[in-house]
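STRUCTURE:
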């Protein structure tokens, strides 16, 4: 198991806050920037979450305009991101 960098720990906190409704869509954008920082300066393990978080951000801003697979909801995106976050250091 890899040791998470400080950015990964902050990403985990922010994802939890996002799912609890404590972060806005703008905050979700900041979260994607933190993931990029992890990729550039840290361990890079959070990069796999980036696409799902970008899609979540689009859903939060404009659910009717989001390009998402049929039947996919914000809840299903949340579950996928949480699962990826939980497992991404267990490689």
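SEQUENCE:
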């Amino acid at each position: 198991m890899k040791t998470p960098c400080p950015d990964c720990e902050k990403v985990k906190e922010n994802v939890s806050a996002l799912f609890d409704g404590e972060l806005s869509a703008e905050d979700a954008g900041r979260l994607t920037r933190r993931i990029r920082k992890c990729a550039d300066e840290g361990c890079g393990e959070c990069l796999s979450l980036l696409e799902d978080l970008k899609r979540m951000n689009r859903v939060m801003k404009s659910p009717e305009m989001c390009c998402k697979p049929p039947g996919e909801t914000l809840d299903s995106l949340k579950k996928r991101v949480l699962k990826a976050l939980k497992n991404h250091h267990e490689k």
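REMARK: The two ends are 6 Å apart (CA to CA).
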